[in-house]
Amino acid sequence: MTSFRLAPMSPLVAVLTVGLLALPVVFVVGGLSAPGSVRFVPFGLAGLVALLYLGVWLYARPRAFEVDGRGLAIVWPARRRLIPRSEIAGARVLVRERCRAELGWGGRIGVGGLGGGFGWAWTSKRGLVDLYVSRTDGLVLVERRAGRPLLLTPERPDELVRALRAG
Question: Which distant-in-sequence residues (6+ apart) come within 8 Å of 29 by Cβ?
């Protein structure tokens, strides 16, 4: 088995993530200055946002992609998804300049900004694409025989593509 960590966040994604992580702190500070009768509202919002962030960390943002004889596994802290090798039709690195030509215009459906974009992306040329990205470069497009293609950002994109082709 070969493991590929999710690529480090691009500077834009890192700034957005830090800003979003500050949101619960802003709510707590707001709660401290709120009148006693409504103080629970900002504290409750801070707790709700923190729970949502925990859910993203455990279930939406993968920590690694693993390739072995069985296929490609997407690994989260609290779950794992296996794409069997028989379902993988191909994989290639998709340079940013070719991304729009390949996928068209798109919009994310799912989590965005907190460590990357995770879930689906609707694209004008390919329809829905499974999305697990932490940056806008180093993209790997994994074609499937049936089902949605995957768009990933592994730490070593060229090596992941070679590992998928080797099987």
Answer: none
Q: Domain spans of the chain?
A: 18-60, 64-166
Strand, coil or helix: 145: coil
Residue 131: both structure tokens together: 């999305």
Strands (E), the chain: 2-5, 64-68, 71-75, 80-84, 88-94, 106-112, 117-123, 127-133, 139-144, 150-152
Distance CA 64, CA 7 (A): 9
* 106: its two tokens: 């798109």
Helix/strand/coil for 63? coil
Q: Model pTM?
A: 0.91
In sequence order, the β-bridge partners of residue 16 are none
What's the count of helices (H) and strands (E) in the chain, helices before strands?
A: 5, 10
The pLDDT tens digits along the chain (167 residues) read 999 999 999 999 999 999 999 999 999 998 888 887 788 889 999 999 999 999 999 999 999 999 999 999 999 999 999 999 999 999 999 987 788 889 999 898 988 889 999 999 999 999 999 999 999 899 999 999 999 999 999 999 999 999 999 86
